[in-house]
Amino acid sequence: RAAPRVLLPGVGSAAAAMRELHALGLAERLPTLTQPVLGICLGMQLLFEGSEEGGDPSLPIPRLTRCLSILPGTVRRLPEAPGVRIPHMGWNALIPCRAHPLVAGLGSSDYAYFVHSYGVPESVLTLMACAHGERFSAIVARGNFMGAQFHPERSAAVGARLLHNFLHLQPGDLPA
Description:
It is built from four helices and twelve strands. It is an alpha/beta fold. β10 (about 125-130) and β11 (about 135-140) form a beta hairpin. The longest helix has 12 residues, at about 155-165. The radius of gyration is 15 Å and the shape is globular. The two termini are about 20 Å apart.
């Protein structure tokens, strides 16, 4: 609670990450934070209501892994298609969707490094999108909660810019 900013990193599966957050008492604590919070990759996905990852794919409607429910929406498996490899691994272009202090200085000529099989569909929360077979949210934000589907630490200058912007956010800078 005393940290000026919080990073919610993530590598692994939604179900395993949520079990660990519950075991540590963080699943209850994270939604109450008022300082800027940035979820990275799986950490971004965990901010949403649920994820198809960890659900039972044999069911007509797969059960969802319940996530933190800070942001509305469901994380979906990226669709397979001819010529589209899943997991999505590698550099891909960012597509600007709406202005926000977190994405200041980032534009349509910028590329980020992705490693994932699940993604968040575009919505009013999407600041930047990406296309891999179909479009999905690459960066999202609402209030003090933000997320990046890509790995800033592997995305060279683009990742450094995103992290710089996050570290310099002030509570008054954030749109509701």
